[in-house]
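Re-run with default settings, no changes from the original entry. Doing this only to confirm the output is reproducible before filing.
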Amino acid sequence: VRPITFGYKWLRGMHQGGNTGCHMDRVYMNRGSSQLLTCWIPLDNLTLDMSVLAVLEGSHRMDRPDESGYTKLQNTYANMDVDRDKLQGTGWFTQDPMEFYQLNDVSETKDASAPVWKTTAFSAGDILIFTMRTIHMSSINLTNTLRLSCDTRWQPANEPVDPRFIQQDKKMPLDHAETKFGLYAKSDDKIEDGKTTMEHWREKWGFLINSS
């Protein structure tokens, strides 16, 4: 099957002290193919202290017991659409990777395995490919070097596309207003009228709120 890629590419720079919180890409781009994949590419050699990407092992799987924490996450957070749900902020589920240890308590599952975050050092030009349902984050940049990376999206050409990111009509520009998540979005203390917050949705879904 011939692959196609989004017309929009995400070039990112992570400053000293910065990181990306825990999230899945599906909440930003879920109006097209279910086979959509993210390809993350570091543009420099990266050590573990340079805001490398980390993935939560097994978080994308849907074949777990109905009451497992990851299944609940896939049935709630994964069905969010940041534009449709008028979400204010980044779209991150949490900024604390240790919070996923609480999923067992939330779902009353006593025998689920502990979450495992996986990462590594990267060389320039390496690629990391994962699904829209994979929980991932980046570590804190502990260096004074700007971490540069690019992430792109790929899917089968014969699958439906998300019109926010692929031009179906060459005369119509991409709607950059709706691609701000992952580019310009940030958490603000003041909530705009008509907007919702991740805290609101987490409480509605029944996830524990980390008050630390």
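The longest strand covers residues 147-156. The longest helix spans residues 198-205.
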